Amino acid sequence: MCSVDFTDSSLSLEEQVIADRIEELREQLGDQLLILGHHYQRDSIVMHADFLGDSFMLSQMAAESKAKYIVFCGVHFMAESADILTDDNQMVLMPNIRAGCSMADMADLPDVEACWNELLDTSNLLDPATREDAELPAESGASYLVPVTYMNSSADLKAFVGHHGGIVCTSSNAAGVLEWALERAGENGKVLFFPDQHLGRNTALAMGYNDDDLAVWNPMMESDWESLNAAKFVLWHGYCSVHQRFTVEQINDLREAHPDALVIAHPECDRTVVDAADASGSTEMIRRYVEAAPSGSVVGVGTEIHLVKRLDEQYPDKEVFCLDPGVCPCSTMYMIHPAFLAELLERLADGEVLNQIVVPSQMADDAILALNRMLSIVA
Ligand code: 13P
Ligand code: SF4
pTM for the full model? Predict the structure, then answer.
C-alpha cells in the first residue's frame, strides 16, 4: 500500500503559485507552445495541458502540430515519438527527462537483434527488409518474420522495426496492427511482438488465436523451440509493473460488494484480468467507457490511479473505483512535477531550451516508417 495520498487533487498555496506562474508563461509563449499531457499525469499538470490523451492521440497531435515548442508531459518514449513525428524546426521538451518507462526498458536493441537473428536462423522465414516493398501484403507462398513494437519502446527499437518492414502499435489499435503484420507475414509467417507480452497475448486471443499460437521469448532463459516453431506470435517477456498488480480476486471482491459493477481493464493487465473484465481498452477508451456508463453506475477500473481518480471526480453521478486498493501510481509518470514544468517554461520565455529530446536523424528516418504505418491504423 502506498503511504502518500495520490488522490488529493486540491492545490496547496505553494502549488497554486506555481500553477499561476505556468499560466502566465503559457500566455506569454502563445501559439509557439503546445503542452501535451498523458491521462496518467497528476491533476496539477493536466490543468495546464492543451491536449490530454492516450499515447496514440498524443502522437497524432504531435504529428499535426505546427507549434515551435512541444512540451511533453508523459514518459520518454512518448516524447521521442513526438520528436520523430515533428519537423526539424520544432522542438520536443520534457519537464523531467528522467521520466522513463520500466516496461520499455525491458527490451533493448542488442537483445531484440539476437532474438531476431536466432528466429531467422532457425526457420525458413525471411526478413521483410529483403523485399522491394515491405508495405505490400506477402507474395503467395512467401513467409516473413514481421516485427511489431508497442509504442512503449525506445526509438532505436522503432527504427529496427521500421527498417525490417514492421510497425508500431498502441493499446488502441493493436488488433488492426496485428492484422496488418499478419498480412505481411504470409500464411506461414510469424510476428515478433515486443516488449509487452500481455498486450500481445490479449490482442491475439481476442482476434481468435489460442495458446498454441503464442510463445514467450525471454533472453535470460533457454528457448522452448517446440512452442516457438509452432507459434504465430513470439511475445517478448516484458510487462508493466503497475498493471501487473491487478488481479481477478480484486474484480471478484468488487462484484461481491457491487453485483452490478462494470469492470474495464487496460490490455497491459494479465489475460485473466482482461477475461474477467467487461471491457478492455487504452486509457482513452477507458475514459470513454466511464463517460458512456449510465448514471448511477459503479465502474471498477484496472489502470493507473490518477486517471481513475480524475474520472471519479469528473462523473459525480457514478462511482469509479481503482481495482487495486493499494492505489499505486506509475512512478515515472509521477516524475513530471509542476515545478519542473514551470522551470522549463521560465527558461523558454528567456530564450533557453531545457531538456530537449532529440532522436538522431538516421534512427528517426527508419522509426518514422514504423510510426506512420501505425498512424494509418485507427482503432
Ligand atoms: P495508452 O496508450 O493506453 O495511453 O497507454 C500508455 C501506457 O503507458 C499505459 O501504461
Ligand atoms: Fe510504462 Fe507501465 Fe508507467 Fe505505462 S504505466 S508508462 S507501461 S511503467
Answer: 0.95
